[in-house]
Structure formats: structure tokens, C-alpha cells
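Q: What structure does this chain adopt?
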Amino acid sequence: MKRVYKLAVLVLLLATLTGCVLKAGDAAIQRGSALFQQKKFDEARTYFEQALKEETTFSTDLIYVLIANCYSQQLDYDNALVWRQKALELEPESADNLLNMAFLYRLKQDDAQAEQLFSKALELDPDNPAPYASLASLYLTANREEEALQMLLKANELDDDIAIVHADMAVCYARMGHFANAEEELEIAEELHVDNYDLFKQEIDALKDLAE
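A:
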């Protein structure tokens, strides 16, 4: 079964346990999750680390990820990667963890390592549009528009309601000189309420001005 490392899912699960007698580790995770929601990341991490020493119904790799999330929220990407690597050693085929590690490497401006991890996540979970969209974003940063477009088309084939995919596709088409396609994709992105719409439009308009 694929593990989902979303804190919201964990909090929901813990909420269902509140009427039960919790194991010591479960209680520590519950307390840590509450502190995480309060943005008290040092305190939350202390409870997650305590859970590693106690009996708990949660897997060790999941607890490692919770600790990593605390570091991520504090912008300590190196320590976040240390703990995600620990989780990966226990669950080497976790596409979700690989994706998150790749994002951390992008934040560290190590796109070569990020590309490897995105590609591995894609191999493990080829029906998930996220690795394709993530690789496309990386390729756009590197001005590899043709590769980016192929990834975007695949992501859109899997899910045609992802706003950022349409926005990136608009930029990609504009850079390749296909402005009619760019305008069409930008309109879809706006309908889907993409974040930072104005920035995408500014880039496309600037490219159009240069082409005239």
C-alpha cells in the first residue's frame, strides 16, 4: 500500500484515536502534530523523536518524515534531507518521499540531484502527474523547452485540471514562438486560478513584444 506522508492525513488519523487508549509513541506523535500545527517546530520535533523510542502504531519511516518536515518548515533543508534519506533507506520505493527530497534539492539550487530524484519518482509512480510537472519546471529553469513541453503534455494527459501545468505550458509555448497556443494555455491557467498569474502573463507579453 502506498504511504501518504501528508500531515493533514496524520492529524485526521490521530483524531480518530483520541477516544482510544494511545500507545506512548502515538501520544507523542499526537502532541507533536498539535505543536507542528501551532508552528512550534522545535517542540514538535522533540515529541516526534521521543516517539522513535516508544511503542507506536506508526512506522519508523513516517516518523522520520515528520521530523524532516519540522526542519523543512524552519528552512533547514540539509537536516530535512538527512531525515528523509533515513526514511528512504527504510522505504526506497516511496515516490512521495523522493518527490519531496527533489523539491528540497531544488531549494538548495542543486537541480542535477533534483532531476535524478524526480526521474526516479516518475519511474515508481508513472500515473502521477506531479513528477512530470516537476521535471517540466526544472527544464524550464534550464531553458530546455522541448523537454519541458513533453513533460507538461504528459502531466496534462494524466490530469488536465492542474493550473500550474497550463501556466508552464503557456510559458513554454511562448518561448518556442507559439503564441496562439501560449494564450490558450494561459487562459486555462487563469480559469483554474493559478497562483502568480500576472507573472506568467508578463513573461509571455514580453516574449511577444520581442518577437514583433
